Amino acid sequence: MTVPEDSKTARLDDHRDLVSARRVLQIEADALEQLRDSLDESFIQALDIISNAKGRVIISGMGKSGHIGKKIAATLASTGTPAQFVHPGEASHGDLGMIMPDDVVLCLSNSGGTKELGDIIAYTKRFNIPLIAIVGKADSTLGRRADVTLLLPDAPEACSIGLAPTTSTTTTLAMGDALAVALLERQGFSPDQFQVFHPGGKLGSSLIKVSDLMHTGDEMPLIGEEARMDEALLEMTAKGFGCVGITNQAGDLTGIITDGDLRRHMGADMLSKTARQVMTENPQTTRPAALAAEALAQMNSTGFNGITCLFAVEGSRPAGVLSVHDCLRNGIM
User: Fold this and answer.
1) What number is the average pLDDT over the span 50-73?
2) What is the pLDDT of residues 77-130, one digit of tens each?
3) Which of 290, 281, 294 is nearest to 313 (CA)?
4) pLDDT greater than 80 at residue 333
5) What is 208-276 written as a DSSP string?
6) Which of 7, 106, 150, 195 is the 20 to 30 A CA-CA neighbour of 132?
7) Following DSSP, what letter does each residue of 170-195 receive, concatenated?
8) Least confidently predicted of 116-125, 168-177, 271-280, 294-303
9) Distances from the Cα of 310 to the Cα of 22, 210, 223, 261, 284, angstroms
């Protein structure tokens, strides 16, 4: 017998594991709302300190806070704010030398009493290094010693026994993300700069520009409007793009001849025709500053089936030509 879909849904809604998971997510979601609503001038002060620092943001935390600290350091570094994680245990055995007077220290501790942070806190006071704390208790050792305290909400851990760091690590991570993104926007960090820090992987490939891949100069297949079609065929064959751009006397791109144009004009007299008689006028183009992913989407769009190359123009003059194969070779899909 087939069980009705609504009965299956009702049984799933009551499943103990799903009830537990949803409770966790709701507790953490509530804490994030509290964190959002609690942000005040301390957050702005922290941004001011980091923005004015000549050095890096040194992040430290123990245990789960340390794992979150590494992620915050990576996010800051990838969005234009130099950052480095220093393990508090290693700091006490020589790694304090990684912290320079021009740096800012960001310490993470929900309790604020993590003893392993003691030497780092003392070091910042000795050398007058700004100390920012992300902490759950303002009156803790870390909260009192910090120059700026970013207070986490007084929210329960999502763990059923109330001990495993769950809500506290989620809100700490969110505070770090808020700092990183606010700094990114304050500094006017651009996609171009982001691509510099992400040359590999999907993020890097998605930010490559047409100008990074396009063929320029003598590599472009170009002929004049009055050139005969035998010249067009030679140019198409020599350059290997399966097309040739057509320019007027002023050097403007006025048309394109592709394999499809050749088939449509196939006949005994085709080679005696001029490029202007065969070309497709007003061809689809892109810009050198456009993202290569945008150009690939244009080539793949439903309205332009069969396009495997696009000329990049500045004004109306050809600056380069981009092939679909250039995109695919560089991981743009």
Assistant:
1) 96
2) 988 899 999 999 999 999 999 999 999 999 999 999 999 999 999 999 999 999
3) 290
4) no
5) -BHHHH-B-GGGS-EEETTSBHHHHHHHHHHH-SSEEEEE-TT--EEEEEEHHHHHHT-STTGGGSBHH
6) 195
7) HHHHHHHHHHHHHHHHHHT--HHHHH
8) 294-303
9) 49, 10, 16, 16, 7
pLDDT digits over 219-255, tens only? 999 999 999 999 999 999 999 888 999 999 999 999 9
Q: At what angle do helices 41-52 and 167-187 cross, to 10 degrees?
A: 60
CB 293 within 8 A of CB 214: no
Beta carbons within 8 Å of 28's beta carbon, 6+ residues apart: 158, 166, 167, 170, 171
Strands (E), the chain: 57-61, 83-85, 104-109, 131-135, 148-151, 222-224, 243-247, 253-258, 280-281, 285-286, 309-314, 317-323
Backbone angles phi, psi at 50, to 5 degrees: -65, -45
Distances from the Cα of 128 to the Cαs of 46, 121, 122, 140, 147, in angstroms? Answer: 16, 10, 10, 20, 10
**Would you say the pTM of this structure is higher than 0.70?**
no
The CATH number given to 210-329 is: 3.10.580.10
CATH topology of domain 14-189: Rossmann fold (3.40.50)
pLDDT at position 220:
95
Question: Is residue 319 classed as helix, strand or coil in its secondary structure?
Answer: strand
Q: Distance (Å, rounded) from C-alpha 246 to C-alpha 99?
A: 61
Distance spanning both ends of the chain, measured CA to CA: 46
pLDDT recorded at residue 3: 53
**308-328 confidence digits (pLDDT tens):** 899 999 999 999 999 988 888
Q: Which of these, 22, 34, 20, lies nearest to 168 by C-alpha position?
A: 34
pLDDT the model gives residue 195: 58
- Nearest to residue 286, comparing CAs of 275, 299, 277? 299
Q: Percent helix, strand, coil in the chain (nearest 5)? A: 50, 20, 30
Q: Any idea how long the chain is?
A: 333
With H, G, I as helix, E, B as strand and everything else as coil, classify residue 22.
Answer: helix
